[in-house]
Amino acid sequence: MSLLKAENIHKRYGKEEVLKGVSLELERGETMVVIGPSGTGKSTFLRCINQLTPPDKGRVWLDGVEVTHPKCNINRLRAQMGFVFQDFNLFSHLNTLRNVSIGLTKVKGIRKEDARKLAMKELERVGLDDKIDAYPAQLSGGQQQRVSIARALAMEPKLILFDEPTSALDPELIGEVLEVMIKLAKDGMTMLVVTHEMGFARAVADEIVFMEHGVIVEQGNPQQMFSAPKHPRTGEFLNKITELYGETE
Amino acid sequence: MVFDLAWLPQLTQGLLLTLQITTACIAMGIVLGILLALGRVYGNRLISTPCSIYIQIFRGTPLLVQLLMVYYGLPSWGIYPSAFISGVLALGLNTGAYQAEYLRGAIQAVNQGQLMAARAIGMSLPQAIRYIVLPQAFRIVIPSWSNELILMVKYSSIVFSVTLLDLMGVGKRIAARNFRYFEVFVVVALFYLVLVFIISQLLRLLEHRARIPGLGEHAEQR
User: Fold this and answer.
1) Residue B2: its pLDDT value, please?
2) How far is B205 from chain A (nearest CA, A)?
3) pLDDT tens track, chain B, 222 positions
4) What is the CATH number of the domain that holds B73?
5) B54: which strand partners?
6) Average model confidence (pLDDT) for chain A?
7) Which of A65, A203, A234, B134 is such that its CA lies 20 to 30 A from the CA of B90?
8) Half-sphere exposure of A161 (CA within 13 A, CB side)
9) Helix, strand or coil for residue A62?
10) Which alpha helices (DSSP H) does B110-180 contain, by range?
């Protein structure tokens, strides 16, 4: 049984149909990279998975539990799906440590002392254990994004959804975030990543999904997608994006 | 003009009542303001519409009319509030409407992405509001809230019109006896001035203490 299964997801904003029936399955420990032009519903799709944006139609299962079921405990299920936002969305009134531990104390009901230790562990993992007292406004974008990854990790999620995690960063700060993500992927975290970083995709993706106009055009392993895409649009897009962003390898 | 200040102690009595009324109505206004603001921002139409109407009415009519309606109006419904209760009630209901609007603005000024991030780690909406949105909204609202508090100190003087002997009421009574209107009211005004000064200093301290490291500095540069 796959860890994440999305079936026929539809979402419409007013007249515009953003998602026109997207389905995919993600195995435990896999890293899947979703690529595609802006405005094709990649972010919306991620939000449909953890129900931050409930889909109009379609169903989602996490580890066999239906997330889209009207009677499910969505807060509990969401806690099992980490989400990393493009613009970090750290809690500005809390320091780094509290940003990471607040979910543990308030959602999981873990005692403050223990939550602190767990949060420290995750901050070490992203290399920010020396910044625990800093507030978000005192951190660089790259550091903020690493804190937000630690915040997601602390909840011990079954998978993490990444919504263009490096798009809001200055070029010289992208590397430190990608490094953390690559390490996570290699450690066996299940990840669904929307990104334009082809270097990252090549390095760790088990599967690449090309989305356009609200549908999945093509999906396959990186080698096949980069060297022999079946659909002409996939090749076109990959060429353009590689030209634009270069190969970070 | 000779200053005879034998009546000064009486004024301190009035000052005490002014403080009591202001404190009580501000406390009431805070609770009411939070409820109304939350109702307006997060309530469905069934909740947010009545909140809006309430705010419109209490901001759109004179405070004095509201006070007189409570004190002289409620008895015709069989409710007989004391002068003190009337004063606190009218002022509290009124400031609640204003505080709600300030707080609503502050809530909406909190980055909505943070609310989403809170939901994403599994917080319920009430949890996200309580732990993420409100702590930041309270910080944002402090300056306008300080204004409101200072206004309430002074607006509380209208309770003299329902027989209460607050700072203003005592002053008026003293002046009516010794006819030294100018002296008495100058002293009364000074009392208010000092009171407002102390309160605004305290609030400035609060604002400073509540500042989020790293954020305040940017705000100052702007």
Assistant:
1) 52
2) 18
3) 455 677 788 888 889 999 999 999 999 999 999 999 999 999 999 999 999 999 999 999 999 999 999 999 998 999 899 999 999 999 999 999 999 999 999 999 999 999 999 999 999 999 999 999 999 999 999 999 999 999 999 999 999 998 898 888 888 888 888 888 888 899 899 999 999 999 999 999 999 998 988 875 544 443
4) 1.10.3720.10
5) none
6) 92
7) B134
8) 24
9) strand
10) 112-120, 125-128, 134-155, 167-178
| Rounded Cα gap, residues B164 and B26, in angstroms | 18
Q: Tens digit of pLDDT for each residue in A190-232?
A: 999 999 888 899 889 999 999 999 999 999 998 888 888 899 9
Shortest Cα distance, chain A CAs vs residue B46, angstroms = 23
Structure confidence at residue A226 (pLDDT): 87
Residue with tokens 């356009």: A212
Does B32 fall in a domain? yes
Yes or no, beta carbons of A92 and B119 under 8 Å apart: no
Domains in chain B, number: 1
Strand partners, B55: none
For the record, the structure tokens of A129 come out as 């254990």
Does B180 fall in a domain?
A: yes
CB-CB neighbours of A134 under 10 Å: 19
Q: Which of A87, A102, A108 sits opposite B131 (nearest CB)?
A: A102
The domain in which residue B203 lies consists of 7-215
Compare CB distances from A76 to B118, B120, B122 and report the shortest one's residue.
B122
Q: What token pair was written down for A182?
A: 């690559």
Q: Read off the DSSP letter of residue B71.
A: I
Between CA B171 and CA B194 the distance in angstroms is 16
Between B196 and A241, the higher pLDDT residue: B196
B93-132 residues touching A, CB cutoff 8 A: 111, 113-114, 116-124, 127, 131-132
Whole-model pTM over 0.90: no
Cβ of A135 within 8 Å of Cβ of B123? The answer is no
Nearest partner of A152 among B135, B159, B118, judged by Cα: B118
* Other Cβ atoms within 10 Å of B201 Cβ, number: 10
Does B222 reside within a domain? no
Contact (CB<8Å) A152/B114: no
Residue B220 lies in a domain: no
Q: What is the distance, to the nearest Å, from the Cα of residue A52 to the centroid of all Cα atoms in its chain?
A: 13
Name A226's Cβ contacts closer than 8 Å, sequence gap at least 6.
A202, A238
